[in-house]
Amino acid sequence: MARYVVHLAFDGDPRRLAARPAHRDHLRRLKEEGRLVTAGPWADDSGALHVYEVADEAEVREILRRDPYTEVNGYEIVLLKEWITIM
C-alpha cells in the first residue's frame, strides 16, 4: 500500500456546495473501507487536503473520478503526490 496526498482547490460554483452531502458520504465510505486516512477543508474553504492509503496513483484517480464533486467540476487538483510518512 502507498499513501497519497491530494490538495484540492475549490472554485465558487454553488453546485459544489449542493454536492457536499454526497461528497462527504463518499469520503465516509472510503474511510470505512480503510482507503482514506483523513480529509478536510482548509479553514477558509478555499480547498481541501485528502490523504489516501491505496495501491497506486491509478486508484486515487479512480476515487476522485467517482467523487460527487468531480461530477460538478467543483475542484482543481493542485497536488497529487505519493507521500512517505516516517511517523
Brief digest:
This protein has 87 residues and is α+β, with helices and mostly antiparallel strands.
Topology:
Blueprint: E1 2-10, H1 14-33, E2 36-41, E3 47-54, H2 57-66, H3 68-71, E4 75-82
Antiparallel strand pairs: 1-3, 1-4, 2-3
Structure description:
The protein is 39% helix and 36% strand. With 87 residues, it is an alpha+beta fold. The chain has one domain: 2-Layer Sandwich (Alpha-Beta Plaits), CATH 3.30.70.1060. Strand 2 and strand 3 (47-54) form a beta hairpin. The protein is globular and about 35 Å long. The mean pLDDT is 97.
Characteristic terms for this protein:
87 residues; alpha+beta; Alpha-Beta Plaits; four-stranded antiparallel β-sheet; 3 helices; globular
Overall shape: it is globular
The structure class reads: alpha+beta
Q: Describe the biggest sheet?
A: 4 strands, antiparallel
How many domains? The number is 1
| C-alpha-based Rg, rounded | 12 Å
Helix content: 25-40%
Number of strands: 4
What is the beta-strand fraction?
A: 35-45%
CATH class: Alpha Beta
What is the CATH topology?
Alpha-Beta Plaits
Rounded to the nearest angstrom, the distance between the terminal CA atoms is 16 Å
User: What's the average pLDDT?
Assistant: 97
The number of helical runs is: 3
Order of helices and strands: EHEEHHE
Question: For the record, what is the CATH homologous superfamily label?
Answer: Dimeric alpha+beta barrel
Multimeric status of the protein: single chain
Give the name of the CATH architecture: 2-Layer Sandwich
Which strand order does the major sheet show?
2-3-1-4
Spans where pLDDT lies below 50 across 5 or more residues: none
